[in-house]
Amino acid sequence: MEASDGLGPIDYVLIEWADATPTGEAVPILLDLVQRGIIRVLDFAAFAKSDDGDVAVLDFGALPDGAEGLAEFEGAGSGVLSEEDLADAAAAIDPGAVAGLLVYENTWAAPFAGAVSRSGGELVASGRIHTQAFIDALEALEAA
User: Fold this and answer.
1) How many domains does the chain have?
2) Per-residue pLDDT reduced to its tens digit, 59-100
3) Is the dihedral of CA 100, 76, 126, 89 positive or negative?
4) DSSP structure string for 37-81
5) Does the predicted model carry a pTM greater than 0.85?
6) Which domain holds residue 100?
7) How far is CA 121 from CA 3, 17, 78, in A?
């Protein structure tokens, strides 16, 4: 599928709670982004890594208090994430941690991407600047 077909850019985030149980504070914000059509959740997985390094996918019924709203994404799976992708995500988190892997479409960008494509434009590069790196760069500029 091409962007001109109405698909926005696809991103993922892997979030780890190494020393704390998720409070669920982010869940209403995520649900709001979906309800307002800013993003569309394509894949969602929650898992835990034992101190021994064993990884277990968490059942939605076993999510911490406050995270019950994530049940809306139960079964969310585009089929694109492979077992290898999940293993790579699990390898990235610390033993004893709980994590969530979210793959989402930036639906807000689909009309723009389609217009660019129809006008003959082509995406030649894309990337992400980590928030802390940007803040550090701004602070360095202010200090200079």
Assistant:
1) 1
2) 777 666 666 677 777 777 888 888 888 889 999 999 999 888
3) positive
4) TS-EEEEEEEEEE-TTS-EEEPPGGGSPTT-GGGGGGTT---S--
5) no
6) 3-143
7) 11, 41, 28
